[in-house]
Recover the amino acids of this structure.
């Protein structure tokens, strides 16, 4: 049965991938600056490797929430505005603490899932994966949480969906062969998560993070520098450079990197600052749960298991699926998250 599941799951993933737009990033920067400065991979590593001991030196909150205002409303960019049917939600907006020069990206939408008339004691922030054209699957996940008495907040990735600049496609600018821009984007998303955690902290007894696919890279980094109660890793891993080099959906990124003369070791060294496995400190989270896809070619399973090992082999659920086919496990995973939280309460 497992062999059949593996064959069907991987076939589903490869079929889905074959239907995707296989584009490289149209905005390859020369030079590819970081904070306005030009670096080689070695000089960048030499300057920022000290942050492996103190990640807060790199993953700052850019001033924190302070007097940030959050308003009800939908984002002005409607290109990717597809909503899950019959799932009521509350659309909210705030200005990003990181300014990119792209108005679509600088205005941050998020969706609150709260049950009317009942206040949850727990809030989970959900970080989606890369290149998603809509949030239908994530909304369904959050809907299950809400119906089970747990509030959730669904994030939007910089440069993705409503935050997609007019001349690009969703996710194009978030992860690319622009090595240092990608690092800046990861730091950017971490800062937004930190801002929201800080803002929500006095409204909930407990706050947690769920990171799906590449969203798990970001939530793992955020949980090193912002205190949370729960951290759920869903089909995600560590060793970000190797994942990008070997992964099914990052083939175009790899091709662009090769054109720039960057190899796998170069990429891993440059992106080490965005890779939990390089940091000596552990997460602030009190409770962990890992959901690992056993047949994954997008975030290869070996790197998902390495992340589990990095966290000391805590609670794990092994999913009999690949990456995209994990969509059929959404209800199982969401329901297990609810059970896990109730068990830890």
């Amino acid at each position: 049965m497992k062999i059949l599941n593996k064959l069907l799951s991987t076939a589903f993933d490869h079929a889905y991938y074959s239907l995707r737009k296989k584009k490289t990033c149209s905005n390859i920067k020369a030079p590819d600056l970081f904070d306005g400065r030009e670096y080689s991979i070695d000089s960048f590593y030499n300057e920022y490797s000290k942050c492996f001991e103190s990640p807060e030196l790199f993953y700052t909150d850019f001033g924190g929430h302070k007097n940030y205002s959050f308003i009800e409303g939908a984002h002005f960019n409607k290109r990717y505005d597809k909503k899950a049917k019959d799932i009521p939600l509350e659309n909210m907006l705030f200005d990003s603490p990181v300014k990119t020069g792209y108005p679509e990206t600088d205005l941050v939408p998020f969706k609150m899932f709260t049950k009317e008339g009942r206040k949850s004691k727990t809030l989970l922030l959900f970080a989606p994966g890369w290149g998603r054209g809509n949030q239908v699957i994530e909304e369904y996940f959050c809907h299950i949480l809400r119906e089970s008495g747990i509030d959730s907040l669904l994030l939007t990735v910089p440069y993705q969906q409503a935050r997609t600049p007019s001349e690009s496609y969703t996710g194009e600018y978030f992860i690319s062969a622009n090595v240092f821009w990608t690092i800046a984007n990861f730091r950017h998303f971490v800062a937004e998560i930190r801002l929201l955690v800080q803002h929500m902290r006095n409204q909930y007894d407990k706050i947690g993070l769920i990171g799906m696919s590449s969203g798990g890279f970001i939530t793992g980094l955020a949980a090193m520098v912002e205190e949370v109660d729960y951290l759920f890793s869903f089909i995600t891993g560590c060793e970000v450079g190797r994942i990008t080099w070997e992964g099914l959906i990052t083939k175009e990124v790899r091709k662009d990197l090769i054109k720039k003369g960057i190899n796998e070791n170069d990429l891993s060294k440059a992106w080490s600052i965005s890779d939990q496995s390089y940091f000596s400190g552990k997460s602030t989270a009190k409770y962990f749960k890992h959901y690992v896809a056993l047949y994954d070619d997008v975030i290869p399973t070996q790197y998902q298991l390495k992340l589990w090992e990095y966290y000391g082999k805590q609670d794990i659920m092994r999913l009999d699926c690949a990456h995209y086919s994990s969509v059929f496990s959404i209800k199982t995973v969401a329901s297990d998250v609810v059970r896990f939280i109730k068990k830890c309460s």
